[in-house]
Specification:
Blueprint lengths: L4 H18 L43 H14 L3 H8 L3 H10 L22 E7 L2 H10 L25 H11 L6 H18 L3 E2 L2 H27 L5 H25 L8 H12 L11 E11 L7 E5 L9 E4 L1 H4 L2 H4 L9 E17 L4 E19 L2
Parallel strand pairs: 1-2
Antiparallel strand pairs: 3-4, 3-6, 4-5, 6-7
Helix pairs in contact: 5-8, 6-8, 7-8, 8-9
């Protein structure tokens, strides 16, 4: 007797609810140990085997209906993680991931190579002694309440997607426009993201903050303002009001500024070690004598991204499955657009199969909702497609 996909998924949802009630995250390799063949069989742009081929139309938006979405997800689910990535994960250690992430972050940069953050006045914020008072409290509140961003998510349908049906972010859109020599193909996507980030800033200004939460909120808003500037400059190039070289310079400075901020956040949280050689040496001395600063225990994850599963009923969100045998095991992370579009929290890096990633997360499990036949019906994909939301992360790209 044939079982319809709709009935099968409904059954899995019930089983998944029971599973999730116990736990989503646990130590050890929780992913399937016998994955199907890789998504593709070629090397990535860097020359490292990544298990994924970027098709010629990778940046072209693709219309999907319920059946197409179901088949797309089913193919990725059956594959789970390419064997080549699993083999790489088995021999990857936490120090190696940390070292590669540290290497991707500039240890320091002269003022001429970075951007000054825009000033955000106290009067623009919701200051409240009862509000979030630490960086970690702020980051968790930010990701847990992102649905309060007042934006028509239907507009995301105009945003260009990559081969995983994941949005091409503003920084990547600008890079594509520069590479193409014109911004016609990315114009609509840039406009949508500019409006989304403006709405994101409006949301951030409503977050009740106090103490160190104030400084973190100001920096988040300031970086969002710089991203808006980047998008506006790209559109000015399209209008002939700015040269591509001027845009390239601004983009490079923004990238360096964001990576430095991202590195500081990762460093302070204890995810990576000190980047500055002198500070790194002093930190090791302090640690040896037991006089280093004590940190709150923040959940961390680290490993190699094994597969990407778009959550097509959740706008531009997606789940990134972490390959088994990760040094700091976690089944998956749930990546939302508001977080990924925040340069300080992820530093303009792309998440893709084969990428080394490390960071902190909010343990609240979030299922990946997707379309299933008949078209228009959304159901949650369960284990291992229930992810924890990252707070800050870095990757060795």
């Amino acid at each position: 007797m044939l079982i319809s996909p709709k009935f099968l998924i409904a059954g899995l949802v019930v089983a998944g609810a029971i599973f999730v009630s116990f736990t989503v995250i646990r130590l050890g390799g929780l992913l399937v140990r016998n994955p199907a063949p890789p998504l593709a069989t070629s090397t990535g742009p860097s020359g490292l085997e990544q298990g994924v081929v970027i098709p010629p139309n990778a940046f072209a938006p693709q219309a999907t209906n319920g059946a197409d979405s179901f088949l797309l997800l089913q193919n990725q689910i059956e594959g789970h993680v390419p064997p080549s990535i699993i083999a790489e994960a088995k021999k990857t250690t936490l120090p190696e991931i940390q070292k590669k992430v540290e290497a991707a972050i500039p240890p320091q940069a002269p003022k001429s190579q970075i951007l000054e953050l825009p000033v955000v006045a106290d009067s623009e914020l919701a200051l409240d002694p009862l509000g979030v008072k630490t960086v970690d409290e702020y980051l968790k509140y930010f990701v847990d309440h992102r649905d309060q961003i007042d934006f028509d998510k239907k507009r995301f349908s105009a945003v260009l997607k990559n081969e995983y049906e994941v949005a091409v972010l503003p920084y990547q859109l600008v890079s594509k426009g520069i590479e193409d020599g014109n911004f016609a193909a990315v114009h609509d996507s840039l406009v949508v993201f500019r409006e989304f980030i403006r709405s994101k800033i409006a949301y951030e200004k409503t977050i009740r903050v106090y103490g160190k939460g104030v400084g973190m909120n100001k920096r988040m808003i300031a970086f969002d303002m710089l991203v808006i500037d980047l998008i506006s400059k790209a559109l000015e190039v399209e209008q002939g009001k700015l040269s591509i070289n001027e845009l390239k310079t601004f983009q490079k400075k923004l990238e360096t500024t964001a990576l430095l901020e991202n590195g500081q956040l990762l460093q302070v949280r204890g995810v990576i070690t000190q980047i500055n050689p002198v500070k790194k040496f002093l930190a090791k001395v302090a640690e040896f004598f037991g006089i280093g600063k004590t940190r709150a225990q923040i959940p961390t994850f680290g490993g190699i991204v094994g597969a990407i599963v778009p959550c097509l009923c959740a706008d531009l969100d997606y789940t990134a499955i972490i390959a088994p045998y990760a040094p700091i095991p976690l089944v998956a992370i749930y990546v939302n657009t508001a977080w990924e579009a925040s340069p300080a929290l992820f530093g303009f890096r792309a998440i893709h199969p084969g990428a080394l990633i490390i960071g902190t997360y909010s343990p609240t499990p979030i299922p990946c909702f997707n379309e299933a036949p008949p078209a228009g019906e959304c159901l949650p994909w369960i284990f291992p497609f229930v992810g924890a939301t990252p707070l800050i992360a870095g990757t060795g790209e």
